[in-house]
Amino acid sequence: MTEKFETALVHAGRAGTKSYGYVNPKLTRGSTVLYPDMATKLTLGKRYLEPVELYGICGTDTHFALEGAIAEIEGGSHCQVVGSGLAAITMPLLAYLSAGDHLLVPDSVYGPTRTFCGIVLRRFGIETSYYNPMLDEAGLAALIRDNTKVLFTESPGSHTFEVQDIPALARAAHASGVKVFMDNTWGIHHFQPFAHGVDVSIQALTKYVGGHSDIILGAVTVNSDSDWAWLRKGSLELGQYASPDDCWLALRGLRTLSVRLRAQEQAALSVANWFSQQSEVARVLHPALPSCPGHNFFKRDFTGACGLFGVVFQERFNAAAVVKMIDALKLFGIGASWGGYESLVLPTTGTISRSAGTGVFEGEIARFQIGLENTEDLIADLTHGLAALRAG
Known about the structure:
Elements: H1 5-11, H2 38-44, H3 61-74, E1 78-82, H4 85-96, E2 102-106, H5 111-123, E3 127-131, H6 137-141, E4 148-154, H7 166-175, E5 179-183, E6 200-203, E7 218-222, H8 225-237, H9 244-254, H10 257-276, E8 281-285, H11 295-301, E9 308-313, H12 319-328, E10 333-334, E11 344-347, E12 365-369, H13 375-391
Parallel strand pairs: 2-3, 2-4, 4-5, 5-6, 10-11
Antiparallel strand pairs: 1-7, 6-7, 8-9, 9-12, 11-12
Helix pairs in contact: 3-9, 4-5, 4-8, 12-13
């Protein structure tokens, strides 16, 4: 029997309802693993691709439980948990790419990903080209070189929420033997990466899986033994590791992921639709709304949305006025992360970096994360904030 998402979240990574013991898996901390004899050590040492406790950095039962659960959610076969969402981006790139290789990255990518490509990968002799995230299959195919090894995708895009045509881009990449990586943090559960041509799916577990703004964690999932071999080997060679305490907290957060996602999706849609009706707003960058680039791909490929979106204000409002609006809000914290239970806001216009000529919008942009507060209270607070925007 194939379990539904909600059921899998409750039961994944647990011993089972008919097993004696506590409901939650135990927390296992450790570095050194003792073996009964040398024959056992030599035999087990060759099994680093399996969930076997060999040494602390290879993982404990706590890591393996979380990795199995995330692989199931993503629709993959193997998962490697790492210490942060950024590590989940950088580790597979370092593990797969070599000097002389070429990488394609969307112009709308998360800022630290761009920084890593421009500084670290460049220092190692790996060239990065940035492409328009709204390219079609033919447009992307024209950018692929003989030495292009990875197509990186992020859908929706960071800050400006462009939804990419992942199946078409994957077809173009695979026709030239190029691997497709995707930052799928926004689309957790709502986008099945491997069903749409992705080879490597990346999650910042810091966000919705943790759910409480108190852990830093990332995950990389693949769906083939060959991809798992280079990913796992590269992870161990790079010394990637995640705290078992954070893994245990992520497992706990995972159990309520479904109800939080559903509540925050509905609340965010209510707030986004409200914003779209305000005269101060030029457009709302929520993938579920027609005003967002790539909305048609969202309708085709996603089963739902999360609670993060952008708002483009009318051109007459400058950056200082947007700051006054944000400072006037009482229920929205000013914070860089998202996916927690609390609502957040950030002005993003000044933080958007582009090099391929994309990301031009009517006015100043702010990014909103909608939490679990009462929606009417949030809209009342935002009404007060828009008054400050007009006065600014």
